[in-house]
Design brief:
446 residues; alpha/beta; six-stranded mixed β-sheet; 21 strands
Length: 446
């Protein structure tokens, strides 16, 4: 995307402190390390960094001008200097200006878990009929939203953005600048409960996505009593769940799922009822977009998980299912249930710490142990980390399966190589901070 100088001033509501040469068109860059001569440097601030400290570096590398939130921070090397009170807000305004200019149908997706999968499924379906642009990976905060909107082509017809949050007001802010036409709330669970205090508060935060939802738009939400009680959107709303009478003929395989919904057969190349749940949201959104059910089915069948999302590989004689992109009690239970109900013996769970669960984090880990013991057997359990040891502590004295905890990824990998026989299928599930790819690298060395 390129902007004229006048467009930048208008979009960001900026004050010109200084200018000598404003001819041509410009792109916005927030990274002083990657600057071209037609870039305007926009310094962002974070908890541990301030982009204003790199303004001179950006100018030396060719930036024509820059934004600043400090009127005293000027440089004679710049061709122009623009003042705004808040550079992140300016970034959001510019991105929203560009989005309004392109005017794609906008779909926003949030949820305690499943939002990235739903977003990826949605993109696969929308691409069957429309020129589609989506958030990459999990770029679901303010900066990620800006990057997503500013990187879409001028021919974009459908824009799909993922919205994450760590506290109140964050999804509302994203909704304000994205202005969605369709909003999807995948679910509300315990992710980030350490910051928000209760699942009820999490539901309130997720429902902020409707604050700027188009009045004639559509909200698609997980059919739970909590979301029904919390939702205040007065426009068209569809609650979707696995209890839908229009959902029939569910068949779960080791690497696939099949079902019938609204008399159309669908196939997913991933397993698990939770993925069928995500697919229901996508089907309903696809129908709203005017995509016929056969094309929706084709799009869903083309969907493939992104890295660390149920990523299947063969390593050193083991079948590895890597789902260590993220973990919270709901997503862990869903992944484990799918794994243990579809994978043949021998099999093992390799589970790591779940992050951001607040003061009750030990209790949530113990509950996983109780959940495993109550519902499953015939597997080995390996846990890694200071919190995941409480999964084992949640087991009774008469364990139904072998369970061992390790402090480090290296120790866990060493144990696997020395004690887990080749031919075993293993599920790796943990929060990203656990860096479970280190275990896989150790296994690859063999």
């Amino acid at each position: 995307m390129k902007f004229t100088f006048d467009e930048i001033i208008k979009a960001a509501d900026a004050q010109v402190l200084y200018k000598t040469n404003t001819s041509g068109v410009f792109s916005i860059s927030t990274d002083s390390r990657n600057i071209s001569s037609n870039d305007i440097y926009l310094p962002l601030k974070g908890e541990k960094f301030d982009g204003h400290n790199f303004i001179n570096d950006a100018l030396k590398k060719g930036a024509r001008g820059y934004f600043t939130s400090d009127k005293n921070l000027t440089s004679p090397d710049a061709k122009f200097i623009l003042y705004v009170e808040n550079t992140l807000e300016a970034y959001l305004k510019i991105a929203s200006y560009y989005k309004t200019k392109i005017n794609p149908i906008t779909i926003a997706v949030t949820g305690s878990s499943g939002k990235t999968t739903t977003k990826e499924m949605m993109a696969s379906v929308a691409a069957e009929k429309y020129k589609t642009h989506k958030s990459i990976l999990n770029h679901n905060n303010e900066i990620g939203l800006c990057q997503t909107m500013l990187s879409m082509g001028e021919d974009t017809e459908v824009l799909i953005v993922e919205m994450g949050m760590r506290g109140f007001g964050e999804i509302e802010l994203l909704s304000k600048y994205a202005k969605p036409d369709i909003a999807i709330i995948a679910n509300t669970g315990t992710a980030h409960i350490g910051r928000l205090g209760s699942v009820k508060n999490i539901a309130k935060a997720k429902c902020e996505i409707t604050k700027y939802l188009h009045p004639e738009g559509l909200l698609i939400a997980h059919d739970t009593e909590l979301i029904r009680e919390t939702n205040t959107f007065e426009g068209q709303t569809i609650y979707a769940g696995l209890n839908s009478p229009e959902l029939t003929d569910i068949k779960l395989g080791a690497n696939s799922s099949e079902f019938v919904f609204k008399n159309q057969k669908y196939k997913l190349n991933v397993e698990g009822k939770h993925n069928i749940q995500n697919a229901l949201f996508v089907i309903l959104a696809g129908l709203k977009l005017g995509i016929d059910s056969k094309s929706i089915a084709a799009g869903l069948e083309k969907y493939r998980p992104i890295e660390k999302r149920w990523e299947i590989s063969e390593i050193s004689g083991y079948k590895i299912i890597n789902d260590s992109y993220n973990s919270n009690p709901e997503s862990l239970k869903a992944a484990v249930s799918t794994f243990l109900s579809t994978q043949k013996l021998p099999r093992a769970l390799v589970l790591g710490d779940m992050g951001e669960l607040g003061k009750d984090e030990k209790k949530y880990h113990k509950e996983i142990g109780g959940f495993l013991e109550k519902n499953f057997d015939d597997f080995k359990l390996i846990t890694v980390g200071n919190l995941s040891k409480y999964i084992i502590k949640g087991l009774s004295d008469e364990k139904k399966f072998d369970a061992k905890n390790f402090e480090s990824n290296y120790d866990a990998a060493k144990y696997i190589l020395e004690n887990i026989p080749a031919g075993t299928t293993m599920l790796f599930k943990a929060s990203r901070s656990m860096k479970f790819e280190e275990i896989i690298k150790e296994l690859e060395k063999k």
